[in-house]
Amino acid sequence: MKTRITELFEVEYPIVLSAMMYVSVPKLVAAVSNAGGFGLLASATVSNSEEEVRKAIREVREMTDKPFGVNIPMLLPERFKVAKVCQEEGIKVVNTSIGNPAELMGWAKEARMKVIHTCGSLGHAMKLAKHGIDGVIVAGSEGGGHTGFVGTMVLIPDVADKVKVPIIAAGGIADARSLAAALCLGADGVAMGTRFAMTQESPVPENIKQRMVKATADDTFASDMATGFNARALVNDYVKRLMTYRKGASSWEKLLSAIRLSRKLKMRAGDMAPLGRKALTRNAESTEFNMNMVPGFERIRRAYQDADADEGFLLCGQVAGRCDSIPTVKEVMLSVVSNVQAVVDGASVKIRP
Ligand SMILES: Cc1cc2nc3c(=O)[nH]c(=O)nc-3n(C[C@H](O)[C@H](O)[C@H](O)COP(=O)(O)O)c2cc1C
Known about the structure:
45% of the residues lie in helices and 14% in strands. The chain contains 15 helices and 11 strands. It has 2 domains: 4-204 and 327-350, Aldolase class I (TIM Barrel, Alpha-Beta Barrel); 207-304, no CATH class. The mean pLDDT is 91. The strands form 2 sheets. It has an 8-stranded parallel β-barrel with strand order 1-2-3-4-5-6-8-9, surrounded by 7 helices. A 3-stranded antiparallel beta sheet has the order 7-11-10, with no helix packed on it. The structure holds flavin mononucleotide. Flavin mononucleotide binds at residues 18-21, 23, 42, 44, 71, 73, 97-98, 118, 139, 142-146, 170-173, 192-195, 197, 315-317, 319.
């Protein structure tokens, strides 16, 4: 199967593993790349130490000789150091997200790295195209994790009409039908997060995988109350409280979360201290990581590292409602690519002359 995305990434299928903190770890990345797709390694949870990112990249290489990329959320204080490690390790594609990639673009071009940015709005995608981005992952609001407000069905054709670079559709993609639909809407490929999080190779704790399996499409909620950005997660005790009281973390939770997160991620006190200052001095436009975001991120860690299904923040897309089993990555890939032609043929039969 060939599209502009298979050519850009030099892979067999135009199917990308979305970057997911705590989830897109070396084993899952390698499984997707080995199955003919393009794995994106999440650096959000290892990036407090460049050496951990280096180690993770090397772990992927031990499991696959196929292409893969690294996600760098632009809100991370360590983003430049992580980018440098990617360059040193010979990574050819970086996927920037959450924030503005402009400050990395010139450097990436000199380093001969391709930059693919994840965005959730037409305006953002148009700005990126002007900065010389190599491709965009355009994520509709039904997607899991940090997401925009416009659904995939409206967003993809809107971007496809105005942006010339290759487009990867994300948000609600899980099977051959959604791949075919994305291509019809103007995308060149797709990225799947929730679908791959619900596979055997995924490190998502078993109890949370089971919650995802049982979830219906109505069982997620998107809000900026947890992390400061609109983020979609499964409804659980924690999210029900957010929905009821409509406010984020107390100062006490902020302090406790900062202590817990820094301990669990082995962050240095020197890395945490500036976050408080950034929270106080932040202007409304800034996406830089600050203390107000820490409680939400600590709850994401609690979900995916501590398996706390009730009090963690279980990032997850609406499409969990359409996924009712935990197959292997290979089974997911095979079922998507082997059925896509039949889906297209089936649709064309419906159009009577
Ligand atoms: C558990 C989880 C963690 C995520 N972490 C990240 C991340 O670290 N960086 C990022 O850019 N996007 C992150 N996202 C968003 C995904 O990259 C992607 O846009 C989304 O999963 C696509 O929608 P889908 O879940 O419907 O496939 C995350 C999503 C999930 C579900």
